[in-house]
Amino acid sequence: MNSILSYAIGAAVLAIAYGAYLTQWILKQPSGDGKMKGIALAIQEGANAYMARQYKTVAAIGGVIFILLGAFLDWEIAAGFLVGAICSGLAGFIGMSVSVRANVRTTEAAKSGLEKALDVAVKGGSVTGLFVVGLGLLAVAGFYWFTGSTHEELFAWPGGD
Questions:
Q1: How far is CA 87 from the centre of its chain?
Q2: Measuring CA to CA, which residue among 124, 94, 146, 131 is closest to residue 13?
Q3: What's the pLDDT score for residue 26?
Q4: DSSP 52-103
Q5: Which of 40, 86, 90, 120 could connect to 104 by a Cys-Cys bridge, CB 3.0–4.6 Å?
Q6: Phi, psi (rounded to 5 degrees) for 149
Q7: Residue 115 and residue 117: Cα distance in Å, rounded?
Q8: pTM of the model as a whole
Q9: What is the largest CA-CA distance in the chain?
Q10: What is the spatial distance between Cα 62 and Cα 2, in angstroms, rounded to a whole number?
């Protein structure tokens, strides 16, 4: 494994680990009184229903694309598409889940002041980005390592050679 690939995998693991750390930090913050928790639960249920419906649609279309890619191009390409779709969906699910939970905690933190609320809000919003980058980079680096591609091959193929 070359050093660039090692750095990419290391950066991906760090991004995912820091995203997981922030998630745990956010969940440890106070979530407010009973009324706030009730509203937050309703928002969370609505967000989960929305995501479930969206993911069913995306899975159906993605399944067709996966089969077409495998049948007409290559099953390795189809596998890359599938892994990318799963990583994207996982990052979206984690991001939505943490964001919804961070909202009520941001509101509660605002009772203590703007600085505390901003800290919770920014950390809550960072989780999605960290998981998108971490999972995406890990998937690309994993395929690069798994296929044994060289740097030149990776960039020459889209050009047609």
A1: 6
A2: 131
A3: 97
A4: HHHHHHHHHHHHHHHHHHHHHT-HHHHHHHHHHHHHHHHHHHHHHHHHHHHH
A5: 40
A6: -65, 150
A7: 5
A8: 0.81
A9: 63
A10: 33
pLDDT attached to residue 120: 97
Tokens encoding 134: 């971490």
CA atoms of 39 and 152, how far apart (whole Å): 54
- The pLDDT of residue 144 is 83
The series of mean pLDDT values per 10 residues for the chain, 161 residues long, is 85 97 97 93 95 96 97 93 94 94 96 96 95 94 78 56 52
Can you tell me the distance from the alpha carbon of 39 to that of 30, in angstroms, rounded to the nearest whole number? Answer: 15
Query: C-alpha angle 42/48/53, rounded to 5°?
Result: 130
Q: What are the tokens at 18?
A: 């820091």
Q: Can you tell me which residue has the tokens 């509660």?
A: 108
Lookup: tokens for 33? 């009184």
